[in-house]
Amino acid sequence: DLVLRFPPVLQDHHHLLTPPPHFASFIPLPDLSISALVNFTVLPGFDPTLAGVDVHRNFLERSIPPLALSSRLLDELNQALLDRAKQFAVLGHAVASKEKWLMACHWLAQRGLDSADEELSLAVNETSCALQTLGWNMDLWGPAAFLQTSDLADFLASTPMKGHFVDAMVNGISHQIQLDSQLRKSTIVEELTFASTLRYDSKQWSQYMFDRGFTRLCQLGDLLSNGELDHIIFPININGAHWTVFLVDAKVGEICYGDSLDWPWPKTDVDHIQQWLHEHGFRTFLKGTILSHGRQQDAYSCAIAMINTICHKLYGTPLFTNEKRDLLRIQELIFLFRAHFSEDESKAASDYSPS
Question: Is 0.85 topped by the overall pTM?
Answer without folding.
Answer: no
